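Re: beginner question about structure tokens

> Can someone show what the tokenized structure looks like for a real chain? I only ever see the sequence side.

Sure, here's an example I had lying around. Input first:
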Amino acid sequence: MSAWESAEERARALIGLWERRPLGVVRAEDAAEFARAAGESDLRLIDPGRADFIVHPMYAVSLLRAAPGADPAEFRPDGMYRDEVPGTDGLDVRLMAGGQHVRWLGEVRVGDRIEMRRAVTAVERKSTGFLLLTVEKVYGTEEGTLVEVTERFIVR
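And the corresponding structure tokens:
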């Protein structure tokens, strides 16, 4: 069995199983750093000292882990987190982003404690020898959902 076929088997076993990942508390300095790195110039997004400071809408979606400084063993050779694409951890496969659809339902605020839930919702085998995995992600707080994301990953 090839590595991508193993990934297919693993991913199919995960369909509909929701996993939770706490992502920590939104800090103004981190959100401003994200906005600056994204090339924003609006002072409301990049200056956390302003009374009208707001968190960039894409900030929550950019969160992958609760704290910076991950152990190098958490990464694949391509630089992605080992478990970022469900079913592929430890397999010698090539990964690519295959698209993302984002739906904003609420505003992320400084001090929010963010949690991400995700589940594989579809696995498609393509005749050219690769998989297309669809993963649903929901970012929210105890008060409710802030962002819903549908991501696709190409596994070869």
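Each token stands for a local structural state, so reading them left to right follows the chain. The helical segments are 3-14, 28-37, 43-46, 59-62.
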